[in-house]
Amino acid sequence: MPNYLAGAALCLSLTVTGFATAQTDNVSRTASGKPDFSGLWQALGNNQWNIEPSAAKAGPDWQWGALGAIPATLGIVKDGELPYTPSGLAQKQVNQADWLALDPVVKCYMPGVPRANYMPFPFQIVQSDETVVMAYEFASAMRIVYMDQPDFDGPVPAWMGHSRGHWEGDTLVIRVTDFMPYTWFDHAGNHHSDQLEVIERYTPAGPNLIMYEAEIRDPVTYTRPWRMAFPLYRRMEENAQLLEFKCVEFAEELVYGYLNKDAPDDRVPPRGMPFTIQEQ
Q1: Tens digits of per-residue pLDDT, 114-156?
Q2: Which tens digits make up the pLDDT trace of 8-40?
Q3: What does UniProt give as the signal peptide span (predicted)?
């Protein structure tokens, strides 16, 4: 390499290194010196509709007009299209064609991980050296991350999985396993099996910004692991706080209305829920 190019490359390297250092020097830290992520966080964008790039389109009910339309998104999936197995792709297409009836979130089931992190609701992180608690506004979902306990296996499958964390430098790494197979990644029908394993990485990029990445491993549904990445922003309003969105009461008629004594004779249980009388 010519000397002038080597010099330029060195200057660029020093500049990038200095920028990265400057970005983490002003990050709040705990007494043990780790980045302190405590606070209220939220992702921006429309990725809850589709984690892959997609154009805007009409919603499921024409009476809602523009308010019910589905917005465009650039997606958050890295490394190309989702690498579905043939059976995984077939199930995604079934889900997508009937998403309003089949998406568990419509019925207020907990969204799972990583979907909970990019829904249009904030979540609160409460951090200690032993555990990290993540409390989500949607459905009052929550999970506990057990730090430095890699052998602490999940006792039973769970909607939000079983989370074990550790630090790699300033990055909080969380391995999430023991999922129920029912959660989806978005309204577009992207899904997983009970073999899902999620490796999350939370890296500080400033006092109010976390760069989030999740690696998805599921050999039943996908031919290889794949990644998604997006930023998480700290909510800065003076009165920012986690509010209630206990959506059961909003989905009650949808899920149980067919049991009402006044329900019409042709009213049937909704499709797609995991534990309906029809499916038992």
Answers
A1: 999 999 999 999 999 999 999 999 999 999 999 999 999 998 9
A2: 444 444 444 444 454 577 899 999 999 999 999
A3: 1-22
Q: Tell which residue, 176, 219, 230, 245, has the closest CA to residue 84.
A: 219
- Listed in sequence order, the DSSP H helices in the chain are 3-25, 86-97, 99-102, 248-256
Instruction: Dig out the tokens for 228 from the structure.
Output: 């998604």
Q: Name, in order, each residue with C-beta under 8 angstroms of 101's C-beta and a sequence gap of 6 or more.
A: 270, 271, 272
How far apart are the C-alpha atoms of 173 and 213, rounded to whole Å?
Answer: 10
Q: Tens digits of per-residue pLDDT, 60-119?
A: 999 999 999 999 999 999 989 999 999 999 999 999 999 999 999 999 999 999 999 999
**What is the b/e burial string over 91-102, where b = at least 16 CB atoms within 10 angstroms of the residue's CB?**
bbeebbeebeeb
Domains of the chain by residue range: 39-257
**40 Rama class: left (phi>0) / alpha (psi -120 to 50) / beta:** beta
Residues 46-59, mean pLDDT to the nearest whole number: 96
User: Alpha-carbon distance 180 to 184, whole Å?
Assistant: 10
Give the C-alpha separation, 215 to 177, whole Å. 12
Whole-model pTM?
Answer: 0.88
Concatenated DSSP letters of 211-246: EEEEEEE-TTTBSS-EEEEEEEEE---TT-----B-
CB 110 within 8 A of CB 160: yes
